[in-house]
Each structure stands twice: as C-alpha cells, then as structure tokens.
Amino acid sequence: MDFTFDDEQKALRDAVRDLAGRHTPASSGGDVPVGPGKHDAAAWSAIADMGLLGLAFGEDVGGAGASAVELSLAATELGRGRLVTAYADAMVAAELINRAGTAEQKAAFLPDLLDGSSLIVPALAEPGRAWSLAAYDVTAEGEGDSVVLTGTKEPVPYADVATHLVVTARAGDRTGVYLVADPQVSGARVHFDATPAIQLGSLDDAPAAIEAAVNLGILAVVSEALGAMDAALPMTVEYLKTRKQFGVPLAAFQTLTQRAADMYVSLELARSTVLFTAMALADDPLDSAAASRAKVQVGQSGRHIGQEAIQLHGGIGMTAEYAVGHYTARLTAIEHTFGDTRWHLARLSASLRDYEQVEVLRPA
Amino acid sequence: MHLHLTAEDAAFQQQMREFFTTQVPQDLRQRWAAGGEPSADDMRQAQRILNEAGLAVPHWPVEWGGKEWSQLQRHIYLQEMQDASVPPPLAFNANMVGPVIAAFGSQELKERFLPPTANLDIWWCQGFSEPNAGSDLASLRTSAVLEGDEWVVNGQKTWTTLGQHADWIFALVRTEPDAPKKQMGISFLLIDMKSPGVTVRPIQLIDGGHEVNEVFFENVRVPADQLVGERGQGWTYAKFLLGNERVGVAPVGSIKRRLADAKSYAAATRDGNGSLLDQPLVAARIAELESQVAALELTVLRVAGNSKEGKPDPVSSILKLRGSQLQQDVLELIADIAGPASLEWKRGDDSETEAWAALATPTYLNFRKASIYGGSNEVQRSVIASAILGLKG
C-alpha cells in the first residue's frame, strides 16, 4: 500500500491548483458570494478545457483514461481554491450514463458531457424526503421511446444552467434512471408533468449504476472537503500567530493552540481516509463501504474543523468577506450532499454482521 | 498510489498470521485475550517463543536480533500479533531500554544486556516518573553521586509499571545538580532491583489491580559502568526512547480485535426478541468506531511511509492521541454492552455472567491510563501545536 503521488499526479495537482487560484471568488472587498454556489461559466469552461471532467472515464467514451484517484486529486484542489462548481454533480451524471446507459446512449451523451459542451447534472432529491438512493415521488410511465416522468425533484443543484438532467424515478416498485433534455426549472426545483424522458438502460442495471455513481460523487465531494479543511487550518493557525489580544498573540493561549492541534488530527485522519477511498473506488466503484466510511470521517472532521476555524478566528470568521466562513459553509453543504453522516452510519450498520474487522490491507 | 499489498507483503502477512496462531499456545492467547491482570509467566513464555523465532525485537539493529523490515511490515507484524492475542514483547525491554543500549551503550553493555533483554531473561522496568515529575519529567530529583567507581543513588520513582516482576530498572537520575537547565545533568542508569536499598511498594489502582509501584532508592550503590552512554546525556536518550516508536504507538491491532469482540458480545447479548447488535444506537456506535479506527490505521500506514529513522517524529503524536482515545472508546462501548453484567467485577464459581462482561468495568477503568502515560494527550497536543503547526505558546 502506497499513499504517495507520482510525478504525473503531482503535475496534475499543481495545474489544477493554478486553475483554481485563478478562479477563486474574491475573499476581500467587492461582492462576495454567500450561500449555495452559483454557476461560474468561466471557471466551468476552464475545468472542462483542462480535461478534468473526463479524468475518471475511459478514452472510449471521450474520457482521459485516468482514474478516480486523479478525479479526487483535482477535486481537492477545487475545494482548496473555494471553487463551488457542478464538478461532483457532473461526475454523478456521467457515471450514471456510463453505467446505466446503452452503448448508443453513452455515445450520444457522454463525450459532450466530458468535454463540457453539455452540462448534465443528476436530479435525485425529492422535497420533504430524507436522502435516498431510491426514487419515490417522481414516477415514470411507459417504455422505450415513450417514457414520461411526473413529480418534483428539489433541490437540484445547477438545474438552472443544465442542458440535461439524469433523473431517478419510480417505475412500478423499482427505481430507474432517465434523461431529460431542457428541463422545466424554477430555481432549484424541477417539476415534471408527463415530461418526455429517455430511459437509460434497464431497470435491472439501475440500482448498481446509482450506487456506483453516487460513490463517485461522494469521492468528489469528500475530496473537495479535504481541500477546504486543508486550507482552513493553516488560515486559522496563521491567525493565531498574528492576531494580538491582551498584548500577546493568540498563540500564547494554550486553550487555543490545543484546539488547533485537535483540528490537525481531524485533518490528517480525513486525508488518510480520502486518499484510501480514491484508491478503493478506482479498484472497485461499488465499494460503498469505503465511500460511506469516507463520508462519516469527513463529515465529522469537516464539522469539527469548520466550527473551530470560525470560533478561533472570532468575529472576523463570521464575515462574508473572510474566506474561513466560506470553507465552513462548503463543508456544511458537503456533509448534506449524497447522504449525511447519519445515513452513511445507518448503511454501514446494516452490514455489521457481514465481516469481523474492517480490513484496509488488501492482498492483490 | 497503490491500494494492494505487494505479493511479498501479502506473503509476509500470511507467514505472521500462521506463526502467531500456531506457535503460541492457544490457552495462553485466550488468557491474554480475556484481559485482567497479565500473567508474568505467560508474558515470559510468549516473548521467548517469539525470540527463538527471531520475532521479539525486529526493530533492533540486525546484529542484536533485528530485522530489516519496512514500516509496513512492522505494522503487519504488530497487527497480526495483536489480532491473535499474543502478548507483545515487554515494551520496557523491546521498545525502550533495548534500543537505547543498542544505540548509545558501550560494546560491553550491549553484550551483557541485549541478549537477556531480548529473551526476557531480564525483566526491565522504567524509572522515569517521580511524585513531582510526571509529564514534567525534566524536574526529576532522584540523585546519583559518584563515589569511587560507584554511583550512590537516592530518591523515589513512581508509576513503575509491573515493577513487582522486574529484575532491573533503567532510571533517569540527576548526576549534575548544578547544571544550568533542568533538562541537563540527567544520566541514564541501569540498576539491579536486588541491590541493597531498593524497596518496591505496590500502588493499588481504581480497577482493584496491582500494576504500578513506587520504587525507593536509599543509598543504593551502582557500579559506574552501568551508566549508559555519556554522563549528563540522559535527557537525550530518554527523548530518543520516547520518540522512536511510531508504528507501534497506536495499538491498532488490539483496538480492532476488541472492537470485533464488542460486535460478537453485542450479538450474544439478548435484548427483547433480538440482540443488542440489532439495537440501532449500538449498531451505529460500532459502525462509527469501525470507521474511526480505519481512519487511524490508514494514518498509521500513511505516516509509516514517511518515516524518518531514529528521530522522534511529531506526527507520532497524532497516533498516540487518537490511538488512546479510540482504545478508550472501544472499552467504554464494551462496558456499555455488558450493562448490568458489568456490575459484578469478580465472578463467583457458578456465575452465569461471561468473563468479558464481568471484567468490562475494571478494564474500562484501567485504560483511562492510556491518555495519561507516555506523554499525556495534552502533552501530545502541545507537541503537535509547536512542532507541526509552529504555534509556540
């Protein structure tokens, strides 16, 4: 087992770090965006142009033929640079098409998604419902070319700028995957009223496709979170060193430095877990236990580091123009994306009897 | 980045697993797994079996029985040993005094002490802490004054773990009382516990057990050649000793073993028509701990890859801090699973309470020590804050 990046991976990391640095939202002066991310078309085309959307996908479908490890590395730098984008969402949509779609459907939609000419995002959440991989209130009727969807998905991040949606919908008592072009969108709400859709592949393949796609989305967001935590801690440490109160730097107060030390521990535990999960999903996209463990660890580390980063900064950490609060907002959003800590603990709890110990050392 | 073990490391893992589960008697391993006060005879027997196979002191210099293993192999060795409930080589011998003598002792001291130390023919105990010098080790006051070719030692050590079984003690003593800083003027001395003037007095702990002792020195005469390395350099050697464990500092294998046990205890404890493992709050707590332990193990493996041989690595503070927390969390879980059965402590002959359940509370109480010894968690946080984050208080 080896956690070190090779030269190519380091070059990718540096390139994405540069890109993210150029598109980082201003953190002092001017208009600072707060709240859920707004689509930044310039940042998005830079991401697409660098080929970051295709990292985890094969060259046969228009991807770069790298792996989930490279995807994770890129997403980490987007998180560090505070770029709030549709990256993770687009990865879920791409993997849904890749796994659920027929050869013709893949050829029709994937290359355009991966080169950035179309923006496709998943529509998974339903209003008034906790997170679920299954669909309940959006239903699909009909077969083949004459499928229609009815019901509401909300929130659907980036629906307002998407060219297509990949929608989970209930067909009888099963959940299928459907593609909708030019969706009817109002803010983050998407309403279907006998809306024509294309069924991606078969109902039999849909559950595994959804699971693998969400796992990839989880990897993207926990990696982003790693980047955010990895930036928020040094900002906080620097603040403790420079900010004076009662005539001395804050770092003179042991109660504060000990808390910074705990943040460091949280960060390193998260880093180990994210790197491992990238390798595990590159090996087996259906390793949902690894994905859930990453979500649990990053959920806990993210909450801890985000809350402490604001607290140790004091009042300045509460202001929109100071970056530490943006990291915390992003970490909070990530915790509630693709299943929260509770959901993932429940999924892990259900399989406790299947194994004696969690084995991270795996023979080839 | 690679996920999988190489064929060589996988073979090594199999080899270790087979050795520990077939060469160390099962009844001995069962006694160790049950917990409670460790049996000195079992510890001796286990270490001698390991030593005979060349597995007692793998991180010593090759000349003295070490193996040139990678940090990953060292992790695998510990993991498999702990998973099989094999008593580990006595830490005072294998991890503490042995490496110090091997690194700083004279050839004569090495030849005299290293083989019996590896074989547990000498049982060592550690004479560092004093009543007023715990985490603030440098303020120790036990003195050694040179008279002819003997040191005359006076003072008191405390928290001397398993000192009641010990043949020898390695002690930090103040040989230069006028040194300008309190870290200076300390020497590292090897003392026979049978020397006239050495008294051992047990300290009873909150679990009812006798694990630690006070050791008193009253005009104890120690041959001058039993001073390790240079006079006045004891502080340097102590820092070497405390810092040279990285991989072993978080007992991941035994935490995982206990957590797997906790799962089977929960499955065997009836609750309504099911078991405690069906209880969502218990199941979620186990799932959470499994995730946290996996994160720790991955961190051990990641840090092991960046090893700086022989130097204290501040990153090992993460492992000590988090390892002790998780060890305590798992034992707390087991006490909670035992529930009413944990009230018993000592079972009567016809008791229907399982041994693990009766021992759950004393074991939980005993391991409150884990976040205090070897540098308390507060000390570990200070090391991280200053050495890694650059926050000088």
From TrEMBL, chain A:
Gene3D superfamilies referenced in this protein's UniProt entry, alphabetically: Acyl-CoA dehydrogenase/oxidase, N-terminal domain, Butyryl-CoA Dehydrogenase, subunit A, domain 2, Butyryl-CoA Dehydrogenase, subunit A, domain 3
Alphabetized UniProt keyword annotations: FAD, Flavoprotein, Oxidoreductase
SUPFAM superfamilies listed in its UniProt record: Acyl-CoA dehydrogenase C-terminal domain-like, Acyl-CoA dehydrogenase NM domain-like
Pfam families, sorted: Acyl-CoA_dh_1, Acyl-CoA_dh_N
Domain Acyl-CoA dehydrogenase/oxidase N-terminal: 7-116
Domain Acyl-CoA dehydrogenase/oxidase C-terminal: 212-346
Similarity comment: family membership: Belongs to the acyl-CoA dehydrogenase family.
Gene Ontology terms, MF aspect: acyl-CoA dehydrogenase activity; flavin adenine dinucleotide binding
InterPro entries assigned to the protein according to its UniProt record, in alphabetical order: Acyl-CoA_Oxase/DH_mid-dom_sf, AcylCo_DH-like_C, AcylCo_DH/oxidase_C, AcylCoA_DH/ox_N, AcylCoA_DH/ox_N_sf, AcylCoA_DH/oxidase_NM_dom_sf
Cofactor or coenzyme needed: FAD
Listed PANTHER family: ACYL-COA DEHYDROGENASE (PTHR43884), ACYL-COA DEHYDROGENASE FADE28 (PTHR43884:SF20)
Record-given protein name: Alkylation response protein AidB-like acyl-CoA dehydrogenase
KW rRNA-binding (keyword) present: no
Organism: Rudaeicoccus suwonensis
Automatic annotation (TrEMBL), chain B:
InterPro entries to which the protein is assigned, alphabetical: Acyl-CoA_Oxase/DH_mid-dom, Acyl-CoA_Oxase/DH_mid-dom_sf, AcylCo_DH-like_C, AcylCo_DH/oxidase_C, AcylCoA_DH/ox_N, AcylCoA_DH/ox_N_sf, AcylCoA_DH/oxidase_NM_dom_sf, Mycobact_Acyl-CoA_DH
Keywords: FAD, Flavoprotein, Oxidoreductase
One GO cellular component term: plasma membrane
Domain Acyl-CoA oxidase/dehydrogenase middle: 125-220
Cofactor(s) listed in the protein's UniProt record: FAD
Superkingdom of source: Bacteria
GO terms, molecular function: flavin adenine dinucleotide binding; oxidoreductase activity, acting on the CH-CH group of donors
Residue span, Acyl-CoA dehydrogenase/oxidase C-terminal domain: 232-388
Entry annotated with the keyword Oxidoreductase: yes
Keyword 4Fe-4S: no
Pfam families membership: Acyl-CoA_dh_1, Acyl-CoA_dh_M, Acyl-CoA_dh_N
Location of the Acyl-CoA dehydrogenase/oxidase N-terminal domain: 6-119
Family: Belongs to the acyl-CoA dehydrogenase family.
Name used for this protein in its record: Alkylation response protein AidB-like acyl-CoA dehydrogenase
Organism encoding this protein: Rudaeicoccus suwonensis
